[in-house]
Design brief:
Largest sheet: 9 strands, mixed
CATH topology of the largest domain: L-amino peptidase D-ALA esterase/amidase
Structural class: alpha+beta
Helix content: 25-40%
Oligomer: single chain
Number of helices: 11
CATH superfamily of the largest domain: L-amino peptidase D-ALA esterase/amidase
Number of domains: 2
Radius of gyration: 22 Å
Order of helices and strands: EEEHEHEHHEEEHEHEHHHEEEHEEH
Low-confidence stretches: none
Length: 401
């Protein structure tokens, strides 16, 4: 597997672009278009929030066909909690794109992100789509990525190549996400494309598996969005032989997809609203993997833990309190906690001032690792999170301003 430079990359058979069409109040880009030059296999993963945006409802129905060719995404307006008009606008967006590109409307997938409860300015969307179609480029990924960003500080890309089925296959992904991040799945939009030839059912299984190991292992603030989705299109332009289930080639494809999703998931956390630290929470020797994940996620989303991390305060008592309320089999007298290499808690007891000083030094780093050993079994899990800063409050207090 080769990781490629994310500047001016391309994926055979795909053209993309991003523009400003007037959805956002600023002059920032707000409409992205991703097009395959042929019918592609499509898989998707969507938010489990019971309140779902029109785009999620539309795509969840269309993805059952396993086919698609176009993704049209906007930022600045979530088109969520917009009732019948919102659904009509989502369908109309797809129909406009389909007409301009000469494809069937049910081959077009729609994505939205932004403020909930507002309607899409459809006249501006239509004009934007017509403009974007005329600008489509094989190397327009940077423009497309900018057009899906909201409170993101920087763009998020990942591109890899691998020899699969006798051909060089490329898998590339872009994502947006910064706040309102929590599984299942994490609050974000993610679009992955590949020129690999692969059956839609296998693409779906691969994407679900990859999502569970990446985007469902991150949290920024514990809030789940109404608009989350991952869409993956595979158009077969590489001309490879389709990988068979369980084959070496399928394992290679899964590894490539895992690399892309894990990279993007970590980039989302690093760009968490107001974040100053990227934090890895590892739980070892839990009763089972499910309890390990539950414990790790409980610590990762605790506001008290996250604010202590921002303040570089080695307050291990907050972690112990969270573990005790996480609904997992734990015994404080058997629990060890590490901040970096510093063992700050052994069998439930603090290890003194020297250990705290070493732990505090670990917390001063941009990347922090916390390891929790429950000594209850063989279950293990790792999740990625960030600290909670003053800036997070400033960003979200003024979100609609």
């Amino acid at each position: 597997m080769r990781t490629l430079d994310t500047k001016n990359f391309s994926v055979a058979g795909f053209k993309v672009w991003g523009i400003h069409c007037g959805i956002k109040k600023t002059e920032k880009k707000d409409l992205a278009l991703i097009c395959s030059d042929r019918e592609a296999a499509v898989a998707g993963v969507f938010t489990t929030n019971r309140v779902k945006a029109a785009s999620v409802l539309l795509n969840a129905a269309r993805v059952k066909s396993g086919k698609g060719q176009v993704i049209i995404a906007n930022s600045g307006c979530a088109n969520a909690c917009t009732g019948k008009r919102g659904m009509a606008d989502a369908r109309a967006t797809a129909e406009i794109a389909a007409r301009e590109l000469g494809v069937k409307p049910d081959m077009v997938y729609v994505a939205s992100t932004g403020v909930i409860g507002e309607f899409l300015p459809m006249a501006k969307v239509e004009t934007g789509i017509k403009t974007a179609v005329g600008l489509l480029s094989a190397t327009g990924w940077e423009q497309a990525e900018e057009a899906i960003m909201t409170t993101d500080i920087y763009p998020k890309f990942s591109v890899v190549q691998e020899e699969i089925g006798g051909k060089t296959v490329t898998i590339a992904g872009i994502a947006k996400g910064s706040g309102m991040i929590h599984p299942n799945m994490a609050t974000m939009l993610c679009f992955i494309v590949t020129d690999a030839s692969i059956a839609a059912p296998m693409l779906k299984r691969a994407l679900l598996s990859s999502t569970e190991r990446s985007f469902n292992n991150i949290t920024v603030d514990g809030d789940m969005s109404t608009n989350d989705m991952i869409l993956c299109m595979a158009n077969g332009a590489a001309g490879n032989k389709k990988p068979a289930s369980g084959s070496k080639d399928m394992k290679k494809f899964q590894a490539c997809l895992d690399t892309v999703t894990s990279s993007l998931a970590k980039q989302v956390v690093r760009d968490g609203e107001g974040a100053t630290k990227f934090v890895v929470i590892e739980v070892k020797n839990a009763k089972n993997p499910v309890e390990a994940k539950r414990a790790a996620m409980a610590v990762a989303k605790s506001s008290l833990v996250k604010t202590a991390l921002f303040g570089e305060d080695a307050n291990w008592g907050r972690i112990m309190a969270v573990l005790g309320s996480a609904g997992v089999d734990m015994d404080e007298a058997k629990t060890d906690i590490y901040f970096g290499k510093a063992k700050i808690v052994e069998r439930g007891l603090g290890q003194g001032k020297a250990a705290e000083r070493e732990a505090t030094l670990a917390l001063k780093q941009r990347e922090v690792q916390i390891v929790i050993d429950l000594h209850k079994g063989k279950g293990a899990a790792t999740v990625w999170t960030c600290d909670l800063s003053y800036e997070y409050i400033k960003i979200n207090a003024a979100y609609r301003s």
